[in-house]
Design a protein that fits this description.
The chain is mainly α. The protein is built from five helices and no strands. The longest helix is centred in the middle third of the chain and has 31 residues.
Length: 130
């Protein structure tokens, strides 16, 4: 129980740092454009394929569960790559500055690391939540 509380505190601290970096990338006086905040949508979408696949893998046979896991990993990796690609595309189009991209990328690393750590800590299995 104490280990879970420590894990929750650590995950919330890491998530708060990630969100802070994303907000700083948008709100600082030199940057001042809020388009990079669209990565928050990717933060919400990233765990959904894993959660849905976990639900389906309990209902089906092992072969179907394996395919479901692989599809979930594929969709999750596409969402994560999109979250890293959006700020780069915005900077290449001269919509945001490269300093804001650096802050948003740092925030991405913290947030996706937090999501991965959550599934690794609280899954109870060696198979990352499945």
């Amino acid at each position: 129980m104490v280990d879970q509380i420590k894990a929750i505190i650590g995950l919330s601290f890491s998530g708060a740092i990630g969100i802070l970096l994303v907000v700083l990338g948008c709100a600082l006086k030199d940057y001042g454009i809020w388009w990079p905040m669209f990565v928050l949508l990717f933060y919400l979408l990233a765990p959904l394929p894993t959660i849905v696949a976990k639900r389906f893998s309990e209902d089906f046979s092992s072969n179907t569960a394996n395919v479901t896991k692989e599809v979930a990993f594929f969709l999750t990796s596409g969402i994560v790559v999109s979250a890293f690609g959006l700020p780069i595309v915005l900077a290449r189009c001269n919509i945001v500055k490269w300093g804001a991209v650096g802050l948003v990328m740092s925030g991405n690393i913290f947030i996706f690391g937090t999501i991965l750590a959550y599934f690794m800590i609280f899954s109870g299995d060696d198979d990352w939540g499945f």
